Amino acid sequence: MDPTRVVEALSNTLLAEKQENGTKILDEMHKIIGFVPTLLKIILEETVDVGVRQAAALYFKNNISEWWKPDEPDEPGELRFCIHEQDKQAIRSSIVAALVSAPIPLQTHLQVALSKIIKHDFPTRFEEFPEQVKRFLESNDRHHLRGALRCLYAFMEVYTYKKNDERANTVSAMQVFFPILYSTLSSLVVEESEDSYVLQTLIIKIFFSFVNYHFPLDAMSKQLFTQWIDILCNVLGDFKVTHSDTSSSTWKRQKWALKILNRVFTRYGSPGSVIKLYQPFADWYLKAFSGQIISVLLNICEAYRQKSFVSKPVLSQTLDYFSSALANSFSWKLLRPHFSLLVREVIFPLMSYTEEDAELWQDDPIEYIRAEAGDWGSVSSPACAASTLLSEACIKRRGVLNNIMPFCIHILSSESSPVEKDAVLHMYIAIAEILLKKAAYKSQLESFLVGHVLPTLHAPEGYRRARAYRLLEKLSEAKFNDQNIFAQVVDEVRKAACFDSELPVRAFAALCLSELVRCQETAHQFVAPHLHELLIRLLELLRQTEFDDLNNVIEILIHTFEKEIVPIASEVLQTLSDTFLQLVNKSENGLPNESNELEDTEDLFEYRSIVATSVLDNMESILQVGEDNENLVAQLEPIVVRLVQSIFDLNLSVFFDEALTFIFSLTTNKISPLLWQVFDQLYPVFKKDACECFSEMMPCLHNYITVDREAFLANASRIEQVTAMCLEVFSMDDQERLQMHAAKLLEVILLDYRGQVNPYVPKYVELALTRLTRPLVSSELRTLCIQVVIAGLLYSPMDMLHMMIEHPWPGTEVNILSEFLKRWIQDADCFLGLHDRRLCVLGLCLIISLPADKRTDAIVTLSEKYIPSLLLLFSGLKKAYATKASNQNEDDSDEEESETEEDLEGKALGSDEDEVDEESIRYLEMLEATKDSEDDDDDDVDDDEDDEEEETLEAFDTQMDKSECDMDEYVTFYRVMTELERTDYAWYSQLINHLSEVQQNDLKGVVDTALKCIQQKESKIIEQAGGYTFSPNIPSSFDFGSPNGQLK
């Protein structure tokens, strides 16, 4: 490989006019032996231009990532390029030295490549890796040391996701590395330089990666572990550098040191919440290190108290450690003497309104709303950590709440500053849940609200008004003895939500109002007269702020005031539709000058998509309110249809699910001409992206097929479109879930349109049979295809039997019927749920009831199999009917009961008590037990998904699933058997003579059940149960082996 030519091509990629040609040449070279090692050499060649070396590093990383071990081919037999083993060996022998020697900006690309190589080749083909790294790790050259640490960090990134049985070699290597790393860190901590801090941070991150998800206790001795804890505490106790740049390596090393302490404590070192494996370690760790660590963390808090700068991540993780320490009496006893001071001097200031908050309020009130409400994932917040610590302490440790209340009341009752009073209200928000449960405080909440919170609703400072509404929202369950005061409160909140001059106040007042409406029924009478104005104002606020929680407010109002919403439903629905279109237009067009913490365009689009989806959910809620009001539905339908058409026309695929849900809702009871127009848009949508939308389209298609059968058949293009969709789905590879839905649709048509879709019957049966001849992973798809054939047999028994006898099963001399019956009987235990079992029973009843002249050898051969299979199905049916009855009789007692004061007292721990989190321990034990069998886990996940799919498909009912048809299969079976006994005793005997005593008893039980059904059902319904009349014209040319199961 000529390096000069590669350098020239890389150089061309940096020039706009030559970039295409340079890229083309590199793409042609990448399969040539020696190309990738040449890239590595170019990266290290100091005489080459830096830009070219950067390009070489990027190409090297991409080649390793894509071609070191390429993904499995999509098609069987397809060949995928893979880097030649000769090149791989050259790279493995030099990449560590290359990364170590490379300029720092290029090391990142090499680190990614190294991770890929380690993932696939260590230890079997890259066993020399630890020794290569060790040589540089012990070097006195700082640049080499930094590169070696990056190699080790790449090693750890791979280790994190290894299974238990794959970690042994990594652990063995780390047993060698940990003493070296400790020694290196010990020599670095005495240095006060940026270079030293960077190296310290790398070492600490390596340690964190090692213990993050797994901690093999044999990786280091107790003595060495103790030394590591000591040095981490030394790092945390170092406040020599006082600058406030949180991105500096100084604060980063402290952040990662704290992450280690938090992780080790919560996952391995807290006796009440660790799995059995770590229990001895946890007992030792708690007593050996709690005093030392808590002392160091208290010093961090002291530094904050003394106005020294402490970074937010360090401060929040410090408080997080304290929250975890509450669970153990040993650590609580160490923390308790300092807790009151912590509340006054750390928690209280942290929960105060800061200059940073004021700046955000002023410059970007919308972002202030999101940050305050925790509406979007945010960086570590000391205020949140303080709130959690305060709340957890009051819940878990007796006496804490009583000790802090005098301090809070003193601030509120004295001439304290507005900021201090606001901080106390913030503290009340943290403990609001406890105040509502404790009788001693609950009884005083009304006077507290009247004396301290309601006056704040009129405070001149907007942030104080907002905080007061937040607290009132948290205390919305508080009982008001004076209803006049309560009426005044509701009115104040409503007015603030509509008219306050500050956006955050309006937003938080709206949240407060929704909670008052939800929790206090008496609030309804005060809100109902203003519902129209309130909803319109809230929708305006939603458009202004794009604050998703406002959608929850609107949802609560819609469901609470269902009757009152009817006169204004059309206007509200139209406004919601306009709001949705505004949101998606912003997302599509973008607003480059927006001020928003979500600076990344993708994040902003994702956020707006979430808000827009919630808007659509509220539109669905209004449709549900009007579903029994035909006149209202007629008003709402055009608005929804226009929106659905806009979603389809604009190809807003992210909202296709919601659009299809609208169509489903509007077609559940009746299908208007307007909605039949929408049906014509479904096929073009399907053609754009069948894989993404077919399963979501299934409920709509089922409605169109079953709700108005006459209209569905009135236009031949409708069944043609459904058939075309199913044909296309069945032609796809690796789409078994979609094919399950397609098979279900075919079955529904065959069962519900008996005698009306004759030309399509052989197409559908052929399609299902053809799919059965191809490899199948899912047993559910196999049974669904069998069900399509059964439905075809029930539709037209004689014609289908004739076809199945006349044609051979592909690749054999056996006819289709013989092979199909064998597979059907073998899979009898795979038919699950009510519908599938009932259909299978009816199908087998048809087979055994055939007259003697139609009873072929294929049927007679399996005579001993039919009744046992039917008994198996009836056994399953008995359980399925029992489950159905149980579900129907269940009341609405599943709602979570709110905690009582006794529950809280049960949670509160005495000074000598430890919290034991049994639920978390069970979960961790389960995770640990499954780490060795990830492949099995994947199978379990697939099984769970298949079960969910089965339950979903069971919901797509047919005429035979109507409640009046329940148990008809018992009656049908009884009639078939009694008729056979009377008219064809020889065949009857052949069916039952081989039965065991247990099977005979089971058969008697089925007959008894059938007799009870006959007694309970009216004769007309019983007659309908077995009435199948078929007279189709079946084409003579049936090509079972064609690719898509089509007729020739």
TrEMBL record:
Domain Importin N-terminal, chain residue ranges per copy: 22-101
Biological process according to GO: protein import into nucleus
Residue ranges, compositional bias (Acidic residues): 889-904, 933-953
Region feature Disordered, mapped onto this chain: 885-953
Cytoplasm listed as a keyword: yes
Alphabetical list of InterPro entries matching this protein: ARM-like, ARM-type_fold, Importin-beta_N, TPR_IPO7/11-like
GO terms assigned for molecular function: small GTPase binding
Subcellular location: Cytoplasm; Nucleus
Similarity-based family: Belongs to the importin beta family.
Protein name stated in the entry: Putative importin 7
Gene source species: Schistosoma mansoni (Blood fluke)
